[in-house]
Write a structure and sequence with these properties.
- The chain contains 13 helices and twelve strands.
- With 422 residues, it is an alpha+beta fold.
- Helix 4 crosses helix 5.
- The longest helix is centred in the middle third of the chain and has 21 residues.
- The mean pLDDT is 93.
- The protein binds a DNA duplex (18 and 18 nucleotides) through helix 8, helix 10 and strand 9.
DNA sequence: TCTGGGGTCCTAGGACCC
DNA sequence: TCTGGGGTCCTAGGACCC
């Protein structure tokens, strides 16, 4: 059996930990650049807000209902997420962190002394006690069913946070009640197809023949089908190195000058390189993309991308940044007001301890590696961008990202730690 | 005025090989 | 007149996830 532990409106819940007066109040967290709503509490939903709403379009609802608005603070959420996972791992041997707010647990052997439901209730209470983050838990023979269980646990208070789908009768009942569009693996497109064929509930789908599913939805559909029928087949790997790494941003204001764009792209490249070293990998291909504001049809539109392949895969900030600069120069068009840009690293492989290449143009590779290590060290201890390349610029004003309502980094920055006055 | 960011996997089809 | 069969590799784009 698997358990899915899902943090309830996670970003909002984290904000509420540090703003205790917000219990029971509508709260939303915005996307980067204060664009759209990405997380909201049930109270905010009840006020008529939805995930994905551009905040400027729902200003009146926000003001009328006194909704509390926060800019996104991923550093804070990631730190809190780690605390939740730590508690899980203390209680359960096999925990797969699936996303920032969800973990799968393998419950093999945990039903010796308690029922699995009681056991997971205990874990959920511990998480609540130590982090103040409320979680919903689903227990089932497959991960897809466990996710469905966690949604029921969230929806109905009677489950007291944990819903187990552990008999065939419960499985069929759950599948007949659950919205088809909310099933893990069924997106907008698949939903349309299924409705067209007269399938309206997950149970209808699960009761189809495998051959039908295979011919209409191919492999991913068959996986979902098997999982809904209680056969686990979705393998999420615990330690997975990313095969692509991307840093991109929308700008608070559109920018037109190459200098600002250079400084933005250099910063994105450095951030990619940092993530790359963090997972112990090297990359061979650097792609840069730029785009104008697609919502402004009164302005000339332009979007383009360019890649540079390095002869030797690397995680060196200087190499990756200069490749990115080169790519940027090849697609920069004057006269365009740019709204968004980014850097993508691909052809990523694990870094080998020692590598030498006959035609390597960089002769002091070991020293450069040491330099990167020192740079990461300093930035880790004294804050990101304490040490950075000059080309990233010191004046971020030109391409700043809007973040008007950001909470302090309570958990990761000693200067922003919570102060309590008694 | 203001509209997010970061991923994975699969399939079809083209280009190529013998 | 009739013009095969069996592969691999790569890429773009679709679909999905959080």
């Amino acid at each position: 059996m698997y358990a899915l532990v899902d943090c309830n409106s996670f970003f909002c819940s984290v904000e509420k930990v540090f703003h205790p007066g917000l219990g029971g109040k509508p709260v939303v967290v915005l996307s980067s650049n204060d664009g759209c709503i990405v997380a909201l509490t049930p109270e905010a939903k009840a006020a008529g807000l939805h995930r994905g709403d551009p905040i400027f379009k729902v200003r009146d609802i926000v003001e009328r209902n006194n909704v509390h608005v926060f800019s996104t603070n991923m550093r804070l959420y990631a730190a809190m997420s780690d605390r939740v996972t730590d508690i899980l791992r203390k209680s359960i041997t096999h925990v797969e962190k699936y996303s920032i707010d969800e973990s799968f647990c393998d419950l093999e052997g945990y039903d010796r002394y308690h029922t699995l439901t009681d056991f997971m209730r205990g874990v959920a209470e511990e998480i609540r006690l130590y982090t103040d983050i409320p979680v919903s838990v689903g227990i089932a023979p497959s991960k897809t069913l466990a996710k469905i269980g966690s949604k029921f646990a969230k929806q109905y208070e009677g489950y007291r946070g944990v819903c187990a789908i552990d008999t065939d009768a419960k499985r069929r009942k759950a599948l007949s009640l659950f919205p088809l569009s909310d099933v893990w693996g069924i997106g907008r497109h698949t939903l349309e197809k299924l409705l067209y064929h007269g399938i309206t509930t997950p149970l209808d789908f699960a009761d189809r023949k495998e051959s039908w599913v295979r011919s209409h939805l191919f492999l991913p559909g068959v996986q979902t089908w098997l999982e809904l029928n209680g056969t686990p087949c979705i393998d999420t790997h615990e330690i997975r190195r990313n095969t692509n790494i991307c840093t991109s941003r929308s700008f608070g204001n559109m920018i037109a000058d190459i200098a600002s764009l250079c400084s933005a792209i250099a910063s994105f490249a450095a951030s990619c390189a940092n993530k790359l070293r963090g997972q112990g990998s090297v990359a061979r291909t650097v792609t840069v993309f730029v785009m104008s504001n697609r919502f402004r049809d009164d302005l000339p539109q332009y979007a383009n991308s360019a890649s540079r392949s390095l002869s030797v895969a690397t995680s060196d900030t200087m190499e990756l940044t200069s490749a990115a600069m080169e790519a940027l120069m090849s697609i920069f068009l004057p006269g365009i007001r740019y709204k968004k840009a980014g850097v993508v690293l691909s052809d990523i492989v694990p870094a080998a301890p020692f590598e030498q290449y006959l035609f390597d143009e960089i002769k002091n590779r070991p020293q450069r590696k040491d330099l990167m290590r020192v740079m990461d060290d300093i930035n880790c201890r004294h804050g990101v961008k304490t040490l950075h390349l000059a080309v990233e610029g010191v004046d971020k004003e030109a391409w700043h990202v809007r973040s008007e309502y950001r909470s302090p980094n309570y958990l990761t920055d000693i200067d922003e730690i919570l102060t309590i006055k008694i």
